[in-house]
Amino acid sequence: MFRLRFVFWLLAVAATFIGNQLIEHKFIMTLMVFLLSLPFFSVLYGFWISRKLIVEAIPESEFIERGQPACWYVRFTNLSKLQTMALRIAIKANTLHLDQEQIKSTLFVSQNSSQDIRLTAIPTFTGPFTVDGLSITINDIFGFFRLKSFSANQVNFPNIYVLPLEDRSETYHEYLSNQLAAGEFPAGKSQSLQDEIDRLRNMENGDSIKHIHWKLSARMQEWMVKEYDKEDDHTITILLNLPEVFFKTYNKESNRLLYLRNFMLDHTYSAIKIFLSREATVRLKTYQPELVVEEAIHVNESDLLRKQLAFIPYRLVIPFSEQIHDEKLGNEQNILYIITHELNHSLVADLRELSTRIGSLHLVFAIDQSGTLEAAKEHIEHLSSLNINVEIAHSRKVNDYAQ
Questions:
Q1: CA angle 246, 251, 257 (to 5 degrees)
Q2: Which among 138, 134, 165, 158 has a CA at the least distance from the CA of 149?
Q3: pLDDT tens digit string along 1-15?
Q4: Does 301 lie in the same domain as 278?
Q5: Who is most buried in 97, 99, 272, 389, counting CB within 10 A?
Q6: Are 287 and 317 in contact (CB under 8 A)?
Q7: How far is Cα 118 from Cα 128, in angstroms, rounded to an integer?
Q8: Are residues 316 and 360 in the same domain?
Q9: Where are the beta strands (DSSP E) in 49-111?
Q10: What is each CA distance from 61 to 111, 127, 152, in whole angstroms?
Q11: Domain count along the chain
Q12: Is residue 245 part of a domain?
């Protein structure tokens, strides 16, 4: 990148050339050669000096709640003992969502010393958050050019993970708790366990009507229920079908999907909190590497699952259809909780097959447009006919769960 001094250099070369034409003298020829050699020497020396720069980024906190500022401490170390570095830093990232398109600053780093800057931004979306557009240029020794030294892929900016928020609505908490306690969404066992009765007993408050032994109740003239092996082992498996977002083609549509993704992750985390409050065992399948490494003594189960949600990238690792087929749902699985942003014939067919092998299936259909619900109406009716509990969760209005 040319700088103003380069223009002055061009004028000096032009003036020297004209002077040489008017007065031929060895001094003017020597001056001409000297001026012409300056840019080449400056560029070569600049590239050598750029190798003396080290850039390190350390996050202030690895996890933040959405709405809190993400912060990195960026250290620039000048190993040169000859030259002070004049750095121009430009940062641009779709995931930053700042008011301005770029962050620009100039930094002077003295020879054989370090300078720190504090980079902060408030992320709008849940998930991995980092700087994906970074450019660091160094002024050459004579100030003719800015030489590119580092880009985003050369500087290791560790991810900061933005955690989902909990929906503290009492209405939804009451709704899902009632679904867990009632027969529509029972904490029961798969159909194959229905014959493995551990014992029969008198019916008590809180027992599901699905466990009533009708023939024995009619004969005994009082309600008798079937109690199954491992009935109290309530296990809930959670699968998420989140929309993919490609930041290289960032536009209004990808922005809409990001906000829908926020809503789905918040909704899932809220459901997890309710499940855990009911003393259920939660298996969250995100098909991600085991990146959360925490000592259990410092983090409870809810926090660990919340962090696992924040690790989910914006692009799918495994197609959702393969995730469903990959599930080995045996008798120990009580409930399959699926949250999805799309319904199609293939998914309905997969759910119909799963519904015969598990105790209960709860499907959350997350939408942000009324047309989406109309298009999926036939699929929802089909799922309801299979006794699959379908929850419609609209991200852009207050959901009435009392209905």
A1: 60
A2: 138
A3: 556 666 666 777 787
A4: yes
A5: 272
A6: yes
A7: 19
A8: yes
A9: 53-59, 63-65, 70-78, 85-91, 103-109
A10: 30, 14, 20
A11: 3
A12: yes
